[in-house]
Amino acid sequence: MRVAIIGTGYVGLVSGACFADFGHTVTCVDKDAGKIEKLKAGVMPIYEPGLDALVASNVKEERLFFTTDAKEAIKGADAVFIAVGTPSRRGDGHADLSYVYGAAEEIAGLMEGFTVVVTKSTVPVGTGDEVEEIIRKARPDADFAVVSNPEFLREGAAIKDFKIPDRVVVGTDDARARDVMKELYRPLFLNETPILFTSRRTSELIKYAANAFLAVKITFINEMADLCEKVGANVQEVSRGIGLDGRIGAKFLNAGPGYGGSCFPKDTLALTKTANDYGSPVRIVDTVIDVNAARKKAMADKVIAAMGGDVTGKTIGVLGLAFKQNTDDMRDAPSLDILPALQAAGARIVAYDPEAMKEAAHLLKNIEFADSAYKALDGADAMVIITEWDQFRALDMGRIKAAMKGNTVVDLRNIYSPEDMAKRGFAYTSIGRPVV
């Protein structure tokens, strides 16, 4: 099938490359000419494991193309995916749908024959109705169907999530559109992937409900971690104890500094705004947003307390800046709250992240960046682990102990053993676990 993807951000680029790998002919469109030229040259705008190789192989096989010419991509396409950004709107927290509506207007003027217009962007309930109205108003004679097909991609595991998903959700009541979507995802039928067909509005809400539930789960275990610290329990054992319950499940029960990234912060906020507009508030999600924001700020206090209550003139070596491992995404990362607070308290920050330092440099001021984890810790009074990159899980602690000026370690991801760290002579603080 012929597919056009409007937007070459995280969702659009990954989706386009994976659809091409399924055997479809895919053209990805973006207005940023520089970005398109880099993509044609094999330079990825984001860090996602395996994406560069996947793009290169499908470009070579002439299944994947990049262009700034929307007409070239949309003309004759069986399906046109809208995969543009929907950031939080300044001032009120609602999702900014201007890019989605702009894409709809452009598609309306260029499509030929029966076309399935698919909203892949995360959009509030009813957006598909608005997209349909925009296209119908611009092209009263057009033959098309608007479909909701939300993405469920985890940064750092997006290709696997697209190719081996838990489920695919498609929102449409149009029989022809359903057939097109079945053909697009036909390779997944071979793996017996559940394909859930719903109404368009139900599909739109599923995406927000899923992200909100995961944010609730993360925030719940973070609050349990705080309680564990008060009563002398171990949050990792609590997580395992409840996660083995099939009704709960083990995923997203790892205590840490709070959630961030491109999805959970904006999607939980957008859901609460929509719910309030309809007079059906989601108070649990409202609370989660507040608790998570407070938690990220409280992590700086945790570091200061571990260093004796005063970090004035102290050097803190920080490992990890991105909101999670295997990505360079800094959007709403806990480090953006933690590090400025430590600086305000008088600390000097030397940081290392395998992928996110370039982006972090635009967002964090007066931070010194190191070339490696070990260089970040040279002469440091304390080590603080913010992001759980695999390469931080087996550091040479003897080398670190010799290089550091102090012996304080604050592990906000619980990747080391308190007992082992104590034996090595570190004053070790983690999340929700008894101090040894």
Using the CA coordinates, give the radius of gyration. Answer: 23 Å
Q: Kindly report the name of the CATH homologous superfamily of the largest domain.
A: NAD(P)-binding Rossmann-like Domain
Number of structurally distinct domains: 2
**How much strand?**
5-15%
Low-confidence stretches: none
Oligomeric state of the chains present here: single chain
**Corresponding CATH architecture of the largest domain:** 3-Layer(aba) Sandwich
* Order of strands across the main sheet: 3-2-1-4-5-6
Give the class from helix and strand content and strand pairing.
alpha/beta
- CATH first level of the largest domain: Alpha Beta
Distance between the termini: 60 Å
Helix content: 40-55%
Describe the structure.
The protein contains 18 helices and 14 strands. The chain is of the alpha/beta class. It has two domains: 2-198, Rossmann fold, CATH 3.40.50.720; 208-436, Rossmann fold, CATH 3.40.50. The longest helix has 32 residues, at 200-231. It is elongated. It starts with a strand and ends in a 7-residue tail after the last strand.
